[in-house]
Design goal:
2 copies of one chain form a homodimer.
Chain A: H1 8-11, E1 15-16, H2 41-49, E2 82-83, H3 103-127, H4 137-145, H5 153-164, H6 171-184, H7 189-195, H8 206-225
Antiparallel strand pairs in A: 1-2
Helix pairs in contact in A: 3-4, 5-6, 6-8
The structure holds a DNA duplex (20 and 20 nucleotides).
Chain lengths: 234, 234
DNA sequence: AGAAGGACCAGTGGTCCGTA
DNA sequence: AGAAGGACCAGTGGTCCGTA
């Protein structure tokens, strides 16, 4: 109802036919304290073997004739494929400089998803149909149909743990506080999500689930080595 | 762990190459007080248009040569495709006569499914993987692998509401008490299932969901016609 | 080099319908 | 005529990787 048109927070900055811009070598380094999940890389190997197929090329909104490119193209007119600006870390209230979006905008998208879920739930209840408790494909479809083309499943899933516990660092670091909470709560990350006011409607990211599992085993090994009580700290 | 071999309760009566047996015209009649779900038949129509494909023929366990049928066949030796005896309504403790299975056996299957689910859950928790709360395809696969070949998804889903509230009648009638409970609880059949000690691990059958929806609308219409308070009886 | 997201894919929930 | 269940199918959760 309220979120029908394209979103105002970011849309004036939507990149269309993004011009080459200077790449500042981001200083976050590569060697991940949090990147390595023991035993997870092996399972991913077989998937890499597949997917050698050619992708379909989707030519979006091309209304001009082929071989003819002197229309009102090249500037900002010809509607090429749009995609949103990359996210950068900002403080609450801070506006992202350059062609970037800040965290306020990211979190705003999560709030919109919640609204869309509630609408889907209300429709389902009215019809006596199955009622989703999480943001499902159905909800993403509904959002897109409602005009929120900038909401998509890979993006929202990608950052969801940052929505739960943002610490001013960024993606990799955002896992850390959630793992720490899981450690205190018996490693039940699903229950933690379901009890969280914002995370409850989101599926637990596989990466976070794996981190909790790895960390649990590490913790159990070190605590049993030191002779502490197993599994239940106190 | 405990339910590995073929089940003892019914297996001695498993029908193999079931001989033609006299069909007693069952006296339950056809016109359904509970069969008609208003507006549901229309949606099912488009599915009937499809599925005109030839099915694969699965020749189970045929070890004898083709064209050669004088082995130790015909009696009870040649392992033809097995299927379980049909269920009939029995009282608790009553043994089903003839080539039939009683409700004790059916309910025993539901208990086995619960056991299999618990085992799958324990494995998932140990591995830090997603942990199912309901009897999923994964659980049925696990049951089959564990030797419980007599457990299958269509059968268990078919009778699940009878497991919840058996009244001594049979399938159609078993919906009635659950709909009555739903009426008293604000028509939230999912919550009723989740709160039920035996039903919690099962998906709500579509049919039951539709019956609750239809009945809710009927109740709402009649109560508003009589001037009563809407939706919330008292 | 790094990020946004279209599109793919294995396995799901649901149940039809060829079979006995 | 009525029931058991193999097998099918649309749409799911999950995320890869061609793209900008």
């Amino acid at each position: 109802d309220t979120t029908n048109a394209l979103d105002a927070l970011s849309q004036e900055g939507l990149s269309q036919e993004q011009v080459l811009q200077e790449k500042e070598a981001a200083g976050s380094g590569g060697g991940g304290t949090w990147e390595a999940v023991p035993g997870a890389a092996a399972a991913a190997e077989k998937k890499k073997q597949r997917r050698k197929v050619q992708r379909k090329l989707v030519d979006v909104n091309r209304h001009i004739d082929d071989e003819n490119e002197d229309d009102d193209n090249g500037g900002s007119g010809g509607t090429e494929r749009q995609r949103e600006h990359p996210f950068i870390v900002t403080e609450p209230g801070e506006v992202a400089r350059g062609k970037k979006n800040g965290l306020d905008y990211l979190f705003h998208l999560y709030e919109q998803c919640r609204d869309f879920l509630i609408q889907v739930q209300n429709i389902a209840k009215e019809r006596g149909e199955k009622c989703p408790t999480k943001v499902t494909n159905q909800v993403f479809r509904y959002a897109k149909k409602a005009g929120a083309s900038y909401i998509n499943k890979p993006k929202m899933r990608h950052y969801v743990h940052c929505y739960g516990e943002n610490v001013g660092a960024w993606r990799q670091a955002c896992y850390k506080p959630l793992v720490a909470i899981a450690a205190r709560q018996g490693w039940d990350i699903d229950t933690i999500f379901n009890a969280h006011p914002r995370l409850a409607i989101w599926y637990v990211p596989t990466k976070l689930r794996q981190l909790c599992h790895a960390e649990r085993n590490t913790a159990a090994a070190s605590s049993s080595a030191s002779g502490g009580g197993d599994q239940l700290p106190f």
